[in-house]
Amino acid sequence: MRKPGFDPGLTQQYTGNVRRFIEKDGSFNVRRRGGTWHDVHPYLHLINMRWPQFLVWLIMGYLVTNTIFAAIYYELGPGELGLSAGMTLGRYQECFFFSAHTLTTVGYGSIAPIGLGANVVASIESLVGVLFFAVATGLLFGRVSRPSAKIGFSENLLMAPYQEITSLQFRVVNRRANNLMEIEARVLLMTVDSVNGQVQRRYQQLKLEREQLTFIPLTWTVVHPIDSESPLWGVTAADFERRRAEILVMIKAYDDTFSHTVFSRYSYRYDEIVWNRRFAPAFTVDEDGELVLDLQKVGQLTDGDGPPALTN
Amino acid sequence: MRKPGFDPGLTQQYTGNVRRFIEKDGSFNVRRRGGTWHDVHPYLHLINMRWPQFLVWLIMGYLVTNTIFAAIYYELGPGELGLSAGMTLGRYQECFFFSAHTLTTVGYGSIAPIGLGANVVASIESLVGVLFFAVATGLLFGRVSRPSAKIGFSENLLMAPYQEITSLQFRVVNRRANNLMEIEARVLLMTVDSVNGQVQRRYQQLKLEREQLTFIPLTWTVVHPIDSESPLWGVTAADFERRRAEILVMIKAYDDTFSHTVFSRYSYRYDEIVWNRRFAPAFTVDEDGELVLDLQKVGQLTDGDGPPALTN
Amino acid sequence: MRKPGFDPGLTQQYTGNVRRFIEKDGSFNVRRRGGTWHDVHPYLHLINMRWPQFLVWLIMGYLVTNTIFAAIYYELGPGELGLSAGMTLGRYQECFFFSAHTLTTVGYGSIAPIGLGANVVASIESLVGVLFFAVATGLLFGRVSRPSAKIGFSENLLMAPYQEITSLQFRVVNRRANNLMEIEARVLLMTVDSVNGQVQRRYQQLKLEREQLTFIPLTWTVVHPIDSESPLWGVTAADFERRRAEILVMIKAYDDTFSHTVFSRYSYRYDEIVWNRRFAPAFTVDEDGELVLDLQKVGQLTDGDGPPALTN
Amino acid sequence: MRKPGFDPGLTQQYTGNVRRFIEKDGSFNVRRRGGTWHDVHPYLHLINMRWPQFLVWLIMGYLVTNTIFAAIYYELGPGELGLSAGMTLGRYQECFFFSAHTLTTVGYGSIAPIGLGANVVASIESLVGVLFFAVATGLLFGRVSRPSAKIGFSENLLMAPYQEITSLQFRVVNRRANNLMEIEARVLLMTVDSVNGQVQRRYQQLKLEREQLTFIPLTWTVVHPIDSESPLWGVTAADFERRRAEILVMIKAYDDTFSHTVFSRYSYRYDEIVWNRRFAPAFTVDEDGELVLDLQKVGQLTDGDGPPALTN
């Protein structure tokens, strides 16, 4: 019986060229169709939304709620809010601002509910207001406090000398100042190959020099040594292109500030591989015996192609 | 000594036919009795309740609290709230709306505590109000932000051709747009068998082609190959029914948006198994090289019973 | 070199009889001394406190804060709050209630800051109020939503027949209605023994028939078979007492509602062991094919000492 | 091919003496440069800030927001807030306090928006206020409830007799009253060595007598036995200094109150090692059979250098 190949949850079926599997921001190049509204989790949308869009939604929600309640107060008539005399603005405007006073529970009392209808509606609106802002508070805080690693990846994947052989290397850094613990890397090679006369996608996990670091205060050069057991043994740049190779990277770490496991995805396509270069060190020791890490240098290459250096 | 069989925490004792162990919504077919109020965790109830029921409880809590405080203000007499003159509504109504002003901390001041009694009660009520809405806020947000995977399962379990043999297959998909990482499946076969002349339930874990995927941007066809070591080797549809077979499925994954591990349970009963059919692919590659996944097609079968295809 | 014995983090040194290591509520029988206030985490105290005590602290905080601010307003003089005319209550009382209006942000306006001093203090107090209730809200919600398993343990530990030999058994149940997944048990035997002529405590992990269940919708009878490799092989009730045996139990599970790992500790002392009895089943199948679990029966024993039964 | 040495994520390159790798507070001795504002996560800063600094930021935010809104109200003119007559304080002051009433949603109504402009601005400000305090609430609670172990380490690392040989020992204690479960230790030796004629840093994991405890109600003496396989076999104090040895310690545990995994880092430099001494016990059994732990004694040494004792 044929052993099934490694499959990371992407398709093995080849039905056309896929631009790339993992985008530069870590998302998958997959469009979803056919979902029903039951599958939509509003929290997911509101938490993943970009900030300007989120704030627009929040302000829209505030305005629309006020507009609706203002219309109700207006319909109830002027006496209900005691607006008959001494009204400075248009009555609808007064209703709108009374609604805002109520929704935010400011309640100045400069306008106040007098009649039964206005009192009932205002009691409901203040409840709605408290609950509306409860959800807004939660979302705002959920967005702000959401655990999210900001792993920096070197722009290029290197085919670099390593001990007596060649290796595939890329470099990662924690771009944030928090501590990442027990950081792990997993690297997959995706190619389009002909297997038993059938064109299909193939996934192979690349063995790493080390798969986990205890912590990552500096940079980590993730190294796959290309020995005779590696699926990349003897592969050339032309092979990479012909087989439409994409190197998929998954980083997993424990974020010590947020107390949560965080994931980061990245991918390098065949045209992002640089041959026979090495990474330049990204840190120095200053005169006080302190290590200084330069985040700009995470992907910086050395000028020449000198002898193999220590990878970290 | 007899090695004890695998037991997933369900009973091995056969005392009658159990309709099914796991319901279609993932809950266990178990009713609980004999618990004391100490065992009730109100949060669990309020967080698991359906939305309409939750909102009814919330509104009831608001109304009941206001009704009680209104009665207290009413008992204190009209002077305490300065209601003697210029009263527009009935006195109890005014008390009720004053209570609502206080509970939600709107505090218009159109009605205000004048006497000592009303002031004391209002001080207490505003404290109650802040704490009541604190809990309501927490519950509301806890409900909205609760990590919950929405795994879609194929309607049927297939007995489908696989390489040279047969296999048991079902398909799962992440119905939501968030990322699930490190998704794992565990599949158990539950049967009612006669062991040493005693009728009892038996549980056997079914070995899967692969038990974990790194991520699941598309569908995952979970496959149990029925080789000579499988407890399903040579089993027929009639055997499944006679032994009252139920296939219990547990899916575990890490939800990257909620940063939590999520579980999903499902089961297939003997009458939900389809023989000699295969799943149709649920995704295509469009002209831009983008993968398009159709959530409707997760359980779709091919028309004929052609040659074995790639499972993913 | 002597292999160090298993040590669960308790002492091996014998300097006197310890009443018991783990109390019935799962806490350790350890008093702590010599900590500084730096080691106190107020959140831990406020979250672990019993409810009545917590509410007393909350109300005290509210009263004390109001008393202090009221004294400040009083010192500022009557004009600052416009209290000179039409005052209904004593001036300090008015100051106190104004403070309550401000702290809870009710702000009726029936009393309002007029002078500079009162305005400044009121601005500060309203800020304090919002932050005070922010913390109270968080604590209240933290208490309510805190993940906490409520594992029920059988009152007694049994020395019960098991297959052809004897076994040590106890039974656990999830007393709450939520789902516990991947439940694990670890059982340690603690004895006071003479090792190389030195009296010391010894800890031995007892091997279980099974250490993990996938889920626990019903009861779980945790079984340590006393075979020839068990440290309990041939041990009598008198031995247990003489060696002051205590069986320490740790249960670990994943709570599917709170999405957190939960722990539960328990212990059985030598005088809580019952010999030659078995547990009665705690569930039945009703006429609808539904399983019915009776939480009262988790520790119930059978009347006689009949043949060995299925443990689950 | 040379097997790469163990690397904890620190550098192997020797470009100068590093004062120490891990500071006494557990942070890494690394300065970061070249980050962009995209890499700054404001929540991380606000949650890691010291309390006085955090409160200053909070109060500053409150004052600045009020100052800005007060200026806007002032610009709108006196009629907008109805301040023309009966004004007690300077107009800007009245605007400032009105802003405070609005931002905190106290809303006394002693000053209230009359004109269109003031009403619009006040509607916006009350929204800003609710959201500002939503974030402040979240931060305040996030700070208070943040899981953080407070592991106490013995001041010194001992080279102490152990069975027939020598061992490296240090002692840890949970300084807080909460329960830590499944506590793990990992210990690394960092030295500056000459490898193949090249000066470089070397990292070696030190094998521990036991790497995990089930719980830690008392102290834990972490022991690395220096047998013939240890990299410390036959090492002298002079060697430690010459090789600039630093012992890096990482403690990982599950905090049962916060329901989170917590980490603690520590390091001992060559000049913090004490030779031929042992730890004194830090606990006693009192007359009630209760264990009493003295947190002050976690690092206390015995006076003489008697025979080897039990490590726990």
CATH architecture grouping of the largest domain in chain A: Sandwich
CATH superfamily (homologous) name of the largest domain in chain A: G protein-activated inward rectifier potassium channel 1
Described by strand count, sense and barrel closure, the largest sheet of chain A is: 5 strands, mixed
Task: Name the poorly predicted regions of chain A.
Answer: none
Order of helices and strands of chain A: EHHHHEEEEEEEHEEEEE
Count of alpha/pi helices of chain A: 5
For the CA atoms, what is the radius of gyration of chain A? 29 Å
Distance between the termini of chain A: 43 Å
Shape of chain A: elongated
CATH class of the largest domain in chain A equals Mainly Beta
> What fraction of the residues of chain A are assigned to beta strands by DSSP?
25-35%
Average pLDDT score of chain A: 85
Q: Give the fraction of residues assigned to helices of chain A.
A: 25-40%
Biggest protein-protein interface? Answer: B-C, 74 and 71 residues
Record field, number of beta strands of chain A: 13
What is the CATH topology of the largest domain in chain A?
Immunoglobulin-like
**What count of structural domains of chain A?**
2
The protein's oligomeric status is homotetramer
Category from helices, strands and their pairing of chain A: alpha+beta
